[in-house]
Structure formats: C-alpha cells, structure tokens
Amino acid sequence: MPSILVLNGPNLNLLGLREPDIYGATTLAEVEADVIAYGAGKGVNVTCQQSNQEGALVDAIHAARGTHDGIILNAGAYTHTSIALRDAIAGTQVPTVELHLSNIHARESFRHHSMIAPVAVGMICGFGAAGYSLALDAIIGHLGETG
Ligand code: CA2
What we know:
alpha/beta; binds ligand CA2
C-alpha cells in the first residue's frame, strides 16, 4: 500500500482556533482525520505530523526517505524563507506536493515567493482544508505516472 506523509509546519496547530476567515474553522485534528480517511478510501496509508520547528521538519523529510512514497507539505511561513526545507526535499528526492490553505498569491507580496516550489512536484493553494485531499489525489496521480 502506498504511504504518504502529510507534514504541517509552524502555527498550523492553531487551525480552526484562530483567524477562521483566512484559514477556515476546521481544526488540524479534523483535517488530519479527514485526509487519513480519504487515503484509506483510496488504498493509501496516510501519516500526519506537525512541527513548529524548522529542524524537526527537515528531520521528518529525511526520515520519509525509504519510509513514505511521497510528502504533502504545508510548510507554513517557512515556505517563504527556508532554504533548509528546500534542500531537504531536493536532497532526499521524495516526491513532494506543496500545499497551502490560502491562496498565497492573493495575499501579501512576501507570501508570493516559495522556496519550496522549484523542488516540488506541484502546488495546490487556495482551497482551504479541501486542499489536503486534492493534494493526496495529486501525489497519487504523480506516483502512478512515475511508477
Ligand atoms: O495558507 C497556508 O496554508 C499558509 O501556509 C499558512 C501559513 C502562512 O504563513 C503561509 O503564508 C500560507 C500560516 C499558518 C498559520 O496558521 C494559522 C492557523 C490558524 C490561526 C493562526 C495561524
């Protein structure tokens, strides 16, 4: 059974608890339960992790090599700053779909640039919590194409 890591970065543990106008009212626990159930329906094992620490996210990407077939990564604000996350994805070569709840291109200009985008398979943004299942379909489709 294919295995996918859903990795959420800084402050995403606050989902559903603050700023629902931007990030929605669904909690991270609900998002994770939904994507795990969606994966189960597709015959895919989904593991979820969240950290507020950049190094812990790097470690999780390293650990995914040989453990998971792909990663769905919402790197939060590290998206816009982290060469370390970009290097981890490039270095491990684990296929990664970049995900954002909000449409980062419709927000402040500092959110328009992603360090992750050049090393990701692709990006899904702007669809709120539904983006996680869209991203799962995307990584499944990608893995089907690439074997
Ligand atoms: O839209 C996204 O998913 C983001 O990755 C979310 C990040 C933001 O820095 C990125 O530019 C876009 C922020 C995550 C903060 O999440 C919160 C959730 C609820 C309340 C407060 C913060």
